[in-house]
Amino acid sequence: MKLYESAATPSCRRVSIFLKLIGAEVDRVSVDLKGGENITPEFQNKSASGTVPLLELDDGTNISESVAICRYFDHLVPNSANLFGTPGVQSAQVEMWHRIVEFQGLIAGFQAFRNITGFYSDRENCVSEWGEESKGRAIAFLDKLEMRLSQSSYVAGEQVSIADITGFLFINLMKGAFKVQIEDEYTHIQVWHSKLGAMPEFQ
């Protein structure tokens, strides 16, 4: 089994953090995104989305998309982390908040970064205006996340879930790529982000 990744990307880091939290290990293969290794015919034939991370099983089966890979390992590796929640209301709450954080936060941040920086301008049409609009949407989402974290210890309730992994990476993106200051205005986000950042699995 091999995990193809570019370790610095949020999607690959999501899988890496998830694996640490459930105590799983897998062989890693580094993929050069800037060099276009992921858009070669060989890689494209393996990845349904043409992106990293990509999990290649021993029987030749390939699984792309980070959350799908996390779900596979969650079923494969016995663990009590319950990062997708326990069956019933809790798993529904985790799914709900994870989709909210990903769609309204992280994806907007992705779109802002790609279109403003033109990081992949050699292979996609970058629209700076859409990048700025996406950045504004990502920043606006901080108010919703702040409100939620004023009501619970973690994004989906009182224990760490995949929603926190995605939220943590979203805040890292906002602080790193866009220099958004959260310390003063978003005190609940700051407490939560620092708490996660102190965990070895998130480092």
From TrEMBL:
<dbReference type="Pfam" id="PF13409">
    <property type="entry name" value="GST_N_2"/>
</dbReference>
<dbReference type="GO" id="GO:0005737">
    <property type="term" value="C:cytoplasm"/>
</dbReference>
<dbReference type="InterPro" id="IPR004045">
    <property type="entry name" value="Glutathione_S-Trfase_N"/>
</dbReference>
<keyword id="KW-0808">Transferase</keyword>
<protein>
    <submittedName>
        <fullName>Glutathione S-transferase</fullName>
    </submittedName>
</protein>
<dbReference type="InterPro" id="IPR036282">
    <property type="entry name" value="Glutathione-S-Trfase_C_sf"/>
</dbReference>
<dbReference type="InterPro" id="IPR010987">
    <property type="entry name" value="Glutathione-S-Trfase_C-like"/>
</dbReference>
<dbReference type="InterPro" id="IPR040079">
    <property type="entry name" value="Glutathione_S-Trfase"/>
</dbReference>
<feature type="domain" description="GST N-terminal">
    <location>
        <begin position="1"/>
        <end position="81"/>
    </location>
</feature>
<dbReference type="GO" id="GO:0006414">
    <property type="term" value="P:translational elongation"/>
</dbReference>
<dbReference type="InterPro" id="IPR036249">
    <property type="entry name" value="Thioredoxin-like_sf"/>
</dbReference>
<dbReference type="InterPro" id="IPR034345">
    <property type="entry name" value="Gtt2-like_N"/>
</dbReference>
<dbReference type="InterPro" id="IPR004046">
    <property type="entry name" value="GST_C"/>
</dbReference>
<dbReference type="InterPro" id="IPR050802">
    <property type="entry name" value="EF-GSTs"/>
</dbReference>
<dbReference type="GO" id="GO:0016740">
    <property type="term" value="F:transferase activity"/>
</dbReference>
<feature type="domain" description="GST C-terminal">
    <location>
        <begin position="87"/>
        <end position="203"/>
    </location>
</feature>
<dbReference type="Pfam" id="PF00043">
    <property type="entry name" value="GST_C"/>
</dbReference>
